[in-house]
Amino acid sequence: MVKFYFDPEKCDLPYDPSENRPTTCLKCLEVCPYALLMFRTMKEKDENGVPLRYDIHMTFKSYANKYCPDCLKCVEVCPSQALKITF
Amino acid sequence: MCKFCKKHAKEHGKWYLNPEGYTEELFYKLTLLDRILGRQPRKVRNALKSSDSSWYPLQLSKQMDLVDWASKPSFIGSLIRKLGNYMALRTHSGQVVPLEDALKIVDLSHDHVVYPCMCKRIFGGQDEYKCLNFAPLTEVNRKAPRRWKEKRLSPEEAKEKLEEFSEKGYVHAVFWWCEMPQAVCICNCDTKYCTALRPKTWYDIENVYRKAEYVAEVDGDNCISCGNCVVRCPYGAISLGVDDRAIIDPTICFGCGQCRGVCEQNAIKLVDRNTHLIAKKIW
After folding, report:
1. Domains, chain B, with CATH or none
2. CA-nearest residue of chain B to A21?
3. Which of A47, B83, B85, B108 has its CB 3.0 to 4.6 Å from that of B207, i.e. a possible disulfide?
4. Which residues of chain B are under the pLDDT cut of 50?
5. Distance of alpha carbon B238 from alpha carbon B262, whole angstroms
6. What is the pTM of this model?
7. d(CA B209, CA B88)
8. Of A82, A4, A66, nearest to A37 (Cα)?
């Protein structure tokens, strides 16, 4: 079983409200060969409608077990060591 | 002919070539329940919700986590698959179209706008302006409080963009909004990031991303087995046979026409899926 952990305290990118996403890093998404990782904003918002929290999430879990090739590129590329994968 | 074209196409042949699907009357049509409750039609309500691009990622992640249950064996899996097929027709799903049909759709519609591709934004972390949307939906999106960034195009520019995308290897797909004949956008999908293709190929939810009305075929005499089409096919449907001729698997082929575009010998043609012996049952 692939299990994916994201630490929101370590990954703290500036959120751009006009673009509706953090525009700086997100290297982990670019590097994933099967695009299994997903960026999502969470429900809580401030008074301007800007989401307070986001996270990186592994989708298609049963297929991630087959396709995630334990390359660990996402873990290596992260500049703030916010990601962890266990197999 | 597929059952949806029979129902919605009328004399135009294909549902997306029916000009009715691009009109505002269909978009703002009220049901009886809407009139009683005094609310806006479902298409407008959904459009206002989804015009906030911070709402979309959370919604999609919930849907994709639900879709994953379709891989469970037996009862739960088949139930989720049926639910997914039903919801796909009631929400926002699409059908692959080759370039010439995509250009016809541009002629039928007005007010062309490109939005950044949501799939690439969520799964790839980058913005690329390649989702070509048309009139009723774009007007509603402009009324929303927190709207998407957009680039407006003239019809000629839109056609040029589509041709450019086709050269890059992106697959065109026309997407409907809430019900079938209401076409609202042409997605130009990079298949690696596509949110619609993966539920289709991995979990067999066929209505999410229906195959085109065409299927590709090789004319064996012209083929010189250069392998261009094998490299280009985003679905892995083409292989080189023992006699050095390209073979297209009609059960995998989506009919996007990408292979035809790169074939220098003009050895690949698109034939009607409804007349094809094997592919006519696979959508």
Report:
1. 3-210 (no CATH), 214-281 (3.30.70.20)
2. B54
3. B85
4. none
5. 13
6. 0.89
7. 9
8. A4
